[in-house]
Amino acid sequence: MKTENQKAWFFVLPVLVLVAFNALIPMMTVVNYSVQETFGDNVFFWQGLDWFEQILRSDRFHAALGRQFLFTFLILIIEVPLGIIIALSMPRKGFWVPVCLVTMALPMLIPWNVVGAMWNIFTLPDIGLLGYFLNHVLGITYDMTQNPLAAWVTIVTMDVWHWTSLVVLLSYAGLVSIPDAYYQAAKIDGASNWAVFRFIQLPKMKTVLTIAILLRFMDSFNIYTEPFVLTGGGPGNSTTLLSIDLVKIALGQFDLGPAAAMSLIYFAITLLVSWLFYTLMTKDDLN
Amino acid sequence: MQKRSIIPIVYILFLMLPIYWLVAMSFKTTNEILSGFSLFPQTFTLENYVTIFTDPSWYWGYINSIIYVSINTVISVAVALPAAYAFSRYRFLGDKQLFFWLLTNRMAPAAVFALPFFQLYSAVGIFDTHLAVALAHCLFNIPLAVWILEGFMGGIPKELDETAYVDGYSFPRFFGTIFIPSIKAGVGVAAFFCFMFSWVELLLAKTLTAVAAKPIAATMTKTASSAGYELGLLAAAGTLTIIPGAIVIWFVRNYIAKGFAMGRV
Amino acid sequence: MAKITLSKLRHSYYPNPKSPSDYALKEVDLDWSDGGAYALLGPSGCGKSTLLNIISGLLVPSEGQILFDGQDVTALPPDQRNIAQVFQFPVIYDTMTVYDNLAFPLCNRGRDEDTVRRRVMDIAEMLEVTEMLDQKAAGLSPDNKQKISMGRGLVREDVNVVMFDEPLTVIDPHLKWKLRSKLKELHQRVKATMIYVTHDQTEALTFADQVVVMQQGEVVQIGTPVELFERPAHTFVGHFIGSPGMNILPCQLQAGTARFGDHTIALEGPIRGEATGETQIGIRPEFVSLSDSGLPATVTKVSDVGRHTVVECNANGTRINAVLEGAAQHNTPEKGVDVHLDFRRDQTRLYVDGWLATDPQTSTEAAR
Prior knowledge:
The structure holds 3 protein chains of 3 kinds. Chain A has helices at 8-34, 50-57, 59-88, 96-105, 112-122, 129-137, 148-176, 180-189, 193-204, 206-221, 225-231, 242-252, 256-282, and strands at residues 3-4, 36-38, 44-46.
């Protein structure tokens, strides 16, 4: 049981200082910019909530937001079931277990720009392994610099390649913690494989799946580097996800006001949806 | 082997395919790459790697990255340990709110911080230093480290603390010689995730550096956008970035299954 | 209900066992009759859980056969053997209600809803859980969860054997006796063969009609609790059962009599066979008394256990316990005092290489 001790604040102080430095000061800057207009030379004019209105009404923002939600939706709907299925089919004991785990973890440790670059050269239409295979062996026309659908399929596949292992590893950790007796009892009870999954495995994996889904939601919603390196947001702006658009406005165009407003809205959406996810998935535990 | 083993096998093949392609390409000359498709390198060459190992603008990229990743890992884990202990053992004013606020920083889109960080770190005068990137990554890594460590610490009963106190241990001695060894799996997992995240992150690392502390990630993007698309060189550089990650996983392989659940299974 | 026969059963967890120590079960030949209540008693690692899992079908033995009513079921999977097993910790389906938990084995076998309802209500009433039927199983206390586990085992009408693998391990002590009595009651009502595995002699001796004592993969003795207490066939049984266990004194045989140091100890009766090997005398502390003559010893410790007193003595370097009725009194010797120990003759036995080697004296011999 925890004891009450206000001196605990000293323990937390270094963390607080470092994180606050990185979080609060920039946030103050962002809030500052979001309500002002500047034409340079550090001269600012009060704009009130104009930037927010402008962003929330802008088609460009809606389009980027829509693309982002679509992307995250596709990611979750593919990676979570796929990850669970792979975890279920992995061996529980034996020599192959560490081999599997190490090779599966590898994609997650590759710098994100290398992931993007890797998939770039992998999918080049005539000289990339996949591009060549699709275009010249299977006869499917595939060029993601020309075709938005091809670009979308590629960025989704790239993310599935990159991050499904996170779901696999977390699910696997949950699975191996289930004592054998549960499987033995299910055998005696005559339960089918589906019943075992539904009544034993899935409930016991609930905590780790919650972590996995939350992490995948947050990271896919905030994604920047990999799709940017792969497609640059194109062709056109068909794969310009929210982060990519924001960086374009902030660092590319230096439109401080709109960028700041957009940042705050972006952050707010992430927090809100994360909170919704978290509450929905843990509501049973509150009983 | 059972029939269902086919699933992980197919998945692992899927994972290895682009990596194979990257490695294969790193051993080809740019000529061979651009002139057509070949599954294996026809003219096996090491010239791409030679370039990287001999050109300072290349190999310093790796060294810079390793420097700031190490700094960040050490800082993050070091400050997270006492904080996680406080969250795990004590109640104090604002503790739940503080913990939640920490976690929200992990959720923040990096893109939101790109410009503000640029201005902040320039203003403080540490733009283009290893320390800058290391500190910037703390924004995400410290909350993660605190969260992971707190999960592991929850598994250590308070009785351990109390026994040490009764036995006359001072707090620093207890913390260093008894407590931390008992959660060493957690420390390993936290360090692993900090290393991993800092090593792979590009946006902030690129934004906060120019020349002196330029990470390998930024050096590579320079190559991709310059005229003459030196794909072989790019592939070699990319292949080399995979190696530190592979080494780290190999060392923690026994903890991956358990540790991944971050003590919360 | 079924008669269970174990024939030449051996099991090793290694793929290529070479020596006897590679075998978890060395050789078991047992017959269990219909409807009996049995206990498998022994310390950790003696092979009782292995044996249990072989009977239930969760483990296929390396050698040997199991027969249910004469039919070979050795290779039959658990769900076709009509057995039920209750594990060390409650195994229940958290997301289902208590009713659904109990109904699960029947639903899997396709029984109609009326039959299911009837059986579930019967079992629920037997286990006294009827009020909880609509609750989610996850929120119950461990002892209730364990009851549900038992209920799931009993709900099928065709259950031949119910096996319990140390089921009271996670139950609070003050609830253990309640569940134990419930088990006994269940046995009388359900009349299935019940096999109860435990390392706790109290549980075994109170539950079972017949106790199978195991050690290191072998069956050491089978008998009623009284038989095990009064005539242990092996020093292990004598030592394991009873608190404190039987006294074991090393001895030598000279011309048909047993000698402990300088002292001749009278045995219960004639010695069987040649008696070559390590010889020991076994006598339970309950039958050791303090008197004026007999084996000299020095008291090393006196423990007052309330209803009786345990006096620990040292005779020639061997520890001997004596149990005296009643609490320690003023004439109970204290530590350091020299006493004489008297052994009740008809309870003094010889053990050769651990096995019982004397027979009780018959009345004709006694008269001689």
